[in-house]
Structures are given as C-alpha cells and as structure tokens.
Design a protein that fits this description.
The complex is a heterodimer of chains A (231) and B (637). Chain A is globular. Chain A starts with a helix and ends with a helix. Chain A has one domain: Up-down Bundle (Fumarate Reductase Cytochrome B subunit), CATH 1.20.950. Chain A is built from 12 helices and no strands. In chain A, helix 1 (2-9) runs parallel beside helix 2 (11-41), helix 6 runs antiparallel to helix 8 and helix 8 runs antiparallel to helix 9 (170-190). Chain A is 76% helix and 0% strand. Chain B has 26 helices and 7 strands. In chain B, strands 3-4-7 form a 3-stranded antiparallel β-sheet. The relative contact order of chain B is 0.10. Classes of the chains: A mainly alpha (231), B mainly alpha (637). The A-B interface holds A 1-2, 5-6, 10-12, 14-19, 22-23, 26, 29-30, 33-34, 92-93, 96, 100-103, 108, 110-111, 163-164, 167-171, 173-174, 192, 222, 225-226, 229-230 and B 20, 376-377, 379, 384, 389, 392, 395-396, 399-400, 402-404, 406-408, 410-412, 415, 417, 420, 516-517, 519-529, 534-539.
C-alpha cells in the first residue's frame, strides 16, 4: 500500500502532471496554429475584433450569465469552478508536498476556508449532476464525458474531505489516500484530451468561432468532393 | 507502413525523452544526470560528442574532392555533405551547453584568449568552421526565394575561398581534438596514448566522414523508398578503403614502434577494447570494401558502413573516458547521458529531414505523400467522423509523441529532494576496525583514521577543554560514562550509538521520524488525530512531541524535541560537526599540535592499513541490537 501510494504521488504524478502541462501547451499551440492557417487561407480576412474581444471577456468573467437561463445551472457551475480551482492549488497539504518536493511554496487557505470550499464544490457538483440528469433542456445537450467528468471530479474531493476531517483508521486512510491520488493523476492525464482542455482554450473560443466562418476560396468544391466521397 | 513518418515519430519520442533529461540537467546539475566523476570527467558523455565532429568530416572531404579535385561524380553528395557537417557541428555546440558547468560563459573563449591551450584552438576552429558551413549552405535555402538573390550570387562568387577555408580549418581542429590528449600521458592507458594521436584523429575523421555519408545515402534512399544509387555508395566505400588502410597502418605502426605489442595481447580489458576498436574501425570495413564485388553489394554496404561508424565512435569514447587509467572500474555511463546525447542527434536528424523536404538539398527533393500543400479533409468511411486535415495530423502526432515521451522522461528521473541539491544518495556503510577506526561511509579512496582508544584516554586524562560545563553536568546527572560526550545514547537502554545507524545517508538529511511509517497500517497504525490536534491544519506544530509516546527516549540537547525537527544531519555533516568543533577548541589548549584542526590530520587516502585489500572491506564494529520498544502509553492503542 505504502509503495503504491509513493509511486502514485511520485513518478506517476510527475508523468500525469507533465502530460497535462505539455498537453495543454500542445493543444493550445495546435489550436492557434490552425487558426492562423485558416486566417491565412481565408478569402475574406475582415474580422470583428472588437466584438470578439467583448464576447471573450464575457465568457471569462461570466457575471452576465448569472441572470441567464438556466439560472440555477449557471450559478452552480460558477461556484463549482471556484472550489475546483482554488482548493487543489491552495490547500495547505498540497503546498507542503510541493515544498518538500521541489522547495517552492505559496500562501495557503486556512483550515476553515478549505473545509467549506471543499463542501461547496462537492455540493455544487452534485447539483450539476442532478440537473444534467433530470432537467430536460440540459440533459439533451449532455454527452457521456459530461457525466463522467462530474463523477471523476467528485472522487478526489470526497476522499480528500474524509481523509482531512474524519477520524478513520490508518488502513482506511491509506486506501482513501490512494484513491485520492490515483483519481487526481487520472484527471491530470485526461485533461488535455477531453473537454477540460477548455481551461486553456476558452479565452480563444470566440476567435476560433469567428474564424470558422471564414472559408478559403473554392471551399464549396472541397465540400462537394467530400460529400460525394462520403456517400 | 510509412517509413518517413515512423522514423519521425521515433525521433520525436527520443527528442521528448531527452528534453526531460535536459531539464533535469539544468535544474539538478551534471551530478544528477551523469555518472562522471573526477577520475573520468569526460567519459561517454563527451567522447560520443567528439565522434560527431569526426563523422561530420564528410563536409570538407567532399568539398575537397568536388571543388579542388573536380570529381563531378560526387556532385549529388555535396549539399548533403555540407548539411550533415553543419548539423553535426551545431549539435556539438548545443551539446556543449549541456556539458559546461557554467554554460553561460561559453562566449569567454572569444574574448579571454589562452593561445597555449589546444582547446582554445579547437573552440575557435569549430566556431569559424561552423560559420563557413553556414556560408556554404546558405545559397541552398536562398534558392527558393528571389528576395536575396544578390546575397546568393555574392556567396557563390566566393565559394572557392570559402571551401578552401573550410578545408584548412577542418584539418586544424580535427587533429587538434587529438592534441588535447597529448597532455595526459599518465591518465590515458599506454596502449591508447600515442604521440601521433592528432594524426590518428585526422585520418579516422576522414574515414568516418566518408562512411557516414555512404550510410546516410543508404538510409535516405531506404526511407523515401527510392532506388539506391549503389554506384555512388560504392564510390564512397572504395575511396574510404584507402583511408581505412592508412588508418590501420598508422595505428598498428604506432603500436609496433612504441613497443606496445605486448600490451595489445596481454588479455586485459584494455587490450580487448583496443583490439575490438581496431577491428570495428578499420579491419572489418576494410575487408568488406576491398573486394570490388562485395563493395557493390547493398547489404555489405549497409553492414560495412555501420560497423565502420561504430568503430570511429568507439575510438572517441575510448580515448574520452573508457581508456582512462584505472578508471574502467569506476565509470559506467548513466542512461541519462546516453539518452541526452542521442536526443541531440535526433533533433538534428529531424532538422535534417525538414531541410531536405523543404529545400533543394538532395538531387531530387523528396515529397512526403502526407505533406501535400492542400488536400481535402478526411472522413472516416464508416462513422462519418472527421479524421482531420492530413497536414495537421502529422503535426498532431509528432507533438503528441513529444509530450508523451517528455512526461515519461520526467517520471523516470528521480524527483527526490537530495537530487534537487545535486547530491548523490549514498547509504552509509559502517566504520571498520576495533581500536583504531577507519571511517569510510561511502567506501571510496579517502577515509578518516580515528584512534578511538586514544580519544577515550585523552578524555579520561582530565585535560580535555572542549567539554562545556553543561555537558559535564549532563554526564554527572545521568551517571553516564564519558561515551555520552560523543555518542547520543538517546535510545532506551543504549550502550553504544553507532553513528551510521541513524545518520544513514552520506550527504543528505535523514528523515528520522518517518511520518509515513507512523501513519501506515503496516507501521505504527496511528490515526491522524492520535498525534495532531483535531480541527486544525495538520502540521508539525499541531502534533505531539515524540516523547509523549516514547517517554524512555532521551533527546539530550533539545528539550522541546518535536516532529518538526525530525530531520537529522547527513553522515558527513554529523562527523564534521562532532570532530571539527572539538578539534578547533582543543587546538587552543594543546600547543604542541598546531595541525590539529587541519583536514589532513584525520583524512587519509588509500586502503587503510591492517584491513583487507580493496575498497570493499567489510570488517566492522560489533553492532548491538540495543533498541528497546517504548512501553505502551495509556490512551493509545
């Protein structure tokens, strides 16, 4: 158990972290590179930059979305994101691992804040899951990975919460810790290859969206050719 | 199977792995990346790189054959040869950044001249020759754009003097790389040491350069599935036969004239190494290519050129490290050295492939079928899913290969704290001897001679001045013998604290408390709240003191001994603190021993007298199993 745990938070963690960091850099590079190529090829290169900037800002700072339908889902989603990002980065125990590992540290959340943010993240994840399952309009837009990610994200939060706050035996603690670390590793590993890549791609989504309508000359021929081939 | 793409994927994988190790080298240092030491400061690491310079010699050799001797048959090889040379030299320079302890000082050579050093000459030559190679190659990429036509015409006008300069510089530094080793007749094994090493280096570089070009031609034809120009390769091989023969004569003549024939057949590791190198670098390729019929056979060409190249590489590695006197026992290259070196070559190969696909380097520019300028996107025939733009998918695959192998590299390198300090993890081995101890925790050639009995006698004589009043008080209070002045005696029932039993690591701190063991079900099986205050962040500060559960442990010098101080110093630090602190105080009292606090008073070199020969002496102190488990504490199960 001990060796599995040290493997999961040693070499395996480094592997997954690097796949995540470089994978995100890669997907961002590919995204922007292809956008640039599309722009170069485009027949009409006029871009509504001002509108794109405004929309991008609205997506990154989603204050306006709070009042939009489905309202409950929007609010839950935003609060869920707060805990999801803040807790893993600013948790004392995590910072301590960084400090003992490579000697860097930063200010930590207090015990009370960490506790309540964890509870809120778990709660809002549950709200989102229920809404995805039972609200028809949201359900119809949901894919398999939307459910999968919500459930997967619950694993490290629930296990971490139990390990940090509940008096449990050493054996159970170890088991939960292994689940905690392994699920965290899996999350890192999957981030750049699934929808969670939006954590770096989101700021550019509006640019890409606008570029998608800039077709290169003679695209119609390509489309016809492709469709014919597809038939 | 697309050979070009598969080759590129493999090259990207190696590059990714090497990039992780390069990061390791810059963050944690050379000590954490290589197995080099003071005895073998170069080894595989630099010997292998020296061979790149040798294998790049094709650039100036083909330049000489084509431009000076006007052999038109070699025309199609000129650009490839120059590009190979340029990438070979560039890789060498890039690899120097990894080799140098202070890479940011690489420019010093340009300003701070040391004209007496062969390395100074090599450095300048490599720098100038790389510039020459750039000037030689520049017309090729300029061909594709009309914008710099004037520059291209200008460069072509001066082609002849540039080529001449290239030949001159190459002759200089190819041999000067051998000159480097002339200053170490006592370091290099006599069989490998020679007064004509510069000549040997020069001749073998010409042979290596030609074989490398032949190998490259074969490999490129194989990759891009083109009909092999067997004639061209045969031409290269038949030219190299003469050089290989000359190289053999030079080598064997040196052995005969300097009277080293006995060493060649004495059956030692060095003699086998030399014979093996001789066979690979000269004899085997010579025999394979000397018969015209064999020379024209493609399989023989593949095998012969590969063996010859391996031979030349082996020669440089031998002289760079393996043939260092007495060093073979001590140095085996670490996998990181090997991967980083090969990774730089992979990057160069990727640049090479990119350049021959982009510019007119080869006689017929290869067209990768998947690199076409514009093709309609692909859709999966069954599901209708978009498979991607072919051009994108090549880039996608390559970057993915890089990311994955980089991550694997990061997982493979050690992430331990001691590596962050560039320190090797050496487990301490016990001191040996009875009355006079030989302290040698890492079993190297240095040891400390410690006369235990005479130290005890000195302490009992009453003249000792370094015991502070506090510690005497402590000795009196505990009723202990004078042992406690040096030994901790803090475990219950302990009569003797062997230093190495707790200070188990030679250079790094040791986690004496072992938190994970205490919290593990197979260890102490404790719950978090058994030690930490519930409802607070679990840190060392919110934990109980060690003595709360282990009341019979005595921590002499730290009354408030808590879990936050459970890292104990390394063996070296502990020993130095214990010995040096007393010696410096005693120095003031004892007037007839002025050297008492000098390093040489305690440190010795060689094998300790009265012990078994060799470095693996295992005569050690008697070890008492003197740890008594603490009595159960009420309230803790």
């Amino acid at each position: 158990m001990e060796s599995l745990l040290s493997f999961a938070r040693g070499p395996l963690f480094r592997l997954c972290l690097m796949v995540m960091l470089l994978g995100l850099a890669r997907i961002l590079f590919l995204d922007l590179w292809e956008a640039y190529r599309a722009y170069r090829r485009a027949g009409d290169r006029k871009m509504p930059w001002r509108l794109i900037a405004r929309r991008s800002f609205e997506w990154i700072v989603p204050v306006k979305r709070l009042s939009r339908d489905p309202q409950l889902y929007s609010i839950a989603s935003i609060l869920f994101h707060v805990g999801l990002i803040v807790v893993p980065i600013f948790l004392f125990a995590h910072i301590d691992l960084w400090k003992s590992g490579i000697g860097i540290s930063w200010p930590a959340l207090s015990f009370r804040w960490a506790l309540w943010l964890t509870i809120s993240t778990i709660f809002f994840a549950a709200v989102l899951l229920i809404e995805r399952l039972f609200v028809k309009s949201i359900h119809s837009l949901s894919r398999g990975q939307d459910y999968f990610w919500l459930v997967l994200l619950l694993f490290p939060f629930v296990t971490g919460f139990v390990c940090a706050n509940v008096k449990i035996s050493a054996g159970l603690y170890e088991f939960l810790m292994i689940v905690h670390v392994l699920s965290g590793d899996l999350i890192f590993l999957l981030i750049p290859f699934t929808k969670i890549a939006h954590c770096v791609l989101a700021p550019f989504s509006q640019v890409i969206d606008a570029l998608a309508w800039k077709f290169p000359p003679a695209t119609d021929q390509d489309i016809l050719e492709t469709l014919n081939r597809n038939h | 199977m697309n050979r070009v793409h598969n080759t590129k994927i493999v090259l990207w994988l190696i590059t990714g792995l090497a990039a992780a190790i390069a990061l390791n080298r810059f963050v944690f240092g050379l000590g954490a990346t290589t197995n080099l030491n003071d005895e073998v400061p170069w080894g595989f690491w630099i010997g292998f790189k020296l061979s790149w310079v040798a294998l790049s010699a094709g650039g100036f050799v083909i330049g000489a054959i084509f431009y000076m001797m006007k052999r038109e048959k070699f025309h199609s090889l000129v650009r490839i040869a120059i590009l190979t040379a340029f990438l070979g030299y560039s890789s060498f320079i890039v690899s120097l950044i990894f080799d140098l302890g202070l890479p940011w000082n690489i420019w010093h050579m340009i300003i701070y001249w040391n004209p007496h050093s062969p390395l100074f000459e090599v450095g300048w030559c490599v720098m100038l020759y790389t510039t020459v190679l750039v000037l030689e190659f520049l017309p090729v990429p300029l061909e594709s754009t009309g914008r710099y036509a004037a520059v291209r015409t200008f460069l072509l006008k001066f082609r002849f003097p540039i080529v001449l300069l290239g030949i001159m510089l190459s002759t200089l530094h190819q041999s000067s790389l051998g000159t480097l080793f002339l200053i170490m007749p006592r370091r290099l094994f006599p069989l490998f040491y020679s007064h004509i090493i510069p000549i040997e280096f020069f001749v073998s570089a010409i042979a290596g350069g030609l074989l490398m070009l032949a190998f490259e031609t074969l490999a490129l034809h194989w990759m891009y599935r083109r009909k092999v120009e067997t004639d061209l390769v045969r031409l290269l091989c038949s030219v190299s036969v003469w050089i290989l023969g000359l190289y053999f004569l030079v080598k064997i003549g040196d052995v005969l004239i300097e009277g080293k024939l006995g060493l060649l057949f004495d059956g030692s590791w060095m003699s086998y190494l030399y014979i093996g190198e001789l066979l690979l670098s000269t004899v085997i390729p010579f025999v394979m290519f000397v018969v015209p019929k064999w020379c024209a056979n493609r399989k023989v060409q593949w095998i012969g050129t590969s063996i010859g190249i391996i031979g030349v590489v082996l020669n440089r590695i031998d002289i760079g490290g393996f043939a260092m006197r007495d060093a073979t026992l001590w140095y085996t290259p670490s996998w990181m050295e090997v991967v980083l070196s090969i990774g730089i070559l992979s990057t160069a190969a990727l640049i090479f492939l990119f350049l021959i696909e982009t510019f007119h380097v080869w006689d017929i520019q290869p067209r990768d079928p998947e690199e076409l300028a514009h093709t309609p996107p692909l859709f999966d025939r069954v599901s209708g899913a978009w498979v991607g733009n072919p051009k994108t998918s090549a880039l996608t695959r390559h970057t993915l290969a890089f990311v994955i192998s980089f991550a694997i590299g990061m997982a493979l390198i050690s992430g331990r704290k001691l590596h962050a300090e560039g320190i090797e993890n050496v487990t301490v081995r016990p001191a040996s001897g009875i009355d006079t101890l030989c302290v040698n925790g890492n079993r190297d050639r240095q040891f400390v001679e410690f006369p235990h009995q005479s130290h005890i006698a000195w302490m009992r004589s009453g003249k000792i001045s370094s015991i502070t009043i506090d510690s005497i008080r402590y000795v009196l209070a505990t009723g202990a013998d004078s042992c406690v002045v040096c030994h901790h005696l803090n475990l219950p029932g302990e009569k003797l604290s062997n230093c190495w039993e707790c200070h188990t690591s030679m250079y790094s701190e040791v986690d004496f408390f072992r938190h994970d063991w205490h919290a593990s079900s197979s260890g102490a099986n404790l719950k978090c709240d058994d030690c930490h205050t519930p409802g607070e962040t679990r840190t060392a500060r919110t934990a109980k003191k060690c003595t709360a559960c282990h009341p019979s442990y005595t921590f002499a010098d730290t009354a408030g001994y808590g879990a936050d101080a459970y890292y104990i110093p390394s063996y070296v630090d502990a020993m130095h603190k214990l010995c040096v602190s007393c010696h410096t105080i005693e120095l003031r009292a004892i007037k007839d021993k002025p050297n008492l606090a000098l390093c040489s008073t305690c440190h010795r070199t060689g094998t300790p007298p009265g012990l078994r020969a060799g470095m693996k002496w295992d005569v050690s102190l008697p070890r008492f199993d003197n740890v008594v488990l603490p009595a159960p504490v009420p309230g803790i199960k």
